[in-house]
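Protocol step 4 of 6.
Sequence for Lactamase, beta (Nothobranchius pienaari) entered exactly as in the expression construct, tag removed. Do not edit the line below.
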Amino acid sequence: AARLCEAGKLDLDVPVQKYVPEFPQKQFDGQDVTITSRMILSHLSGIRHYEKDAKKVKEETEKAKRLLKPPGKDGESASSSEKVNEVSTDQESKSKDSSQARRKKEFEHEEYYLKDNFENVIKSLDLF
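Step 5 output, structure tokens:
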């Protein structure tokens, strides 16, 4: 959001419906209220936090994986499996080359994205 603001693509103080027209107009005590992007980003919009049912989410995820996974082919010839092995070995060598190139360019970036999870903000500040 900060990058979008800097680029002039996001105005934090306009109603969120400008960017998400499907977002419903909210009411409080019978009066329409304006919810802005700033309010959502700072958790002041009054939109409640909710937790999804973990079991249901897991079931849906597994179902989606089954649908995406192609069924196994029976009676596959040896020559076709050898071709698959050759292709996978070829892809592995290409991915090694590209990962080495990525490592070389790692420090050329202006910004870095960390995938680490921290228990709290204080622990994340230990990076600095």
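Step 6, annotate. Residues 67 and 75 are 22 Å apart (CA to CA).
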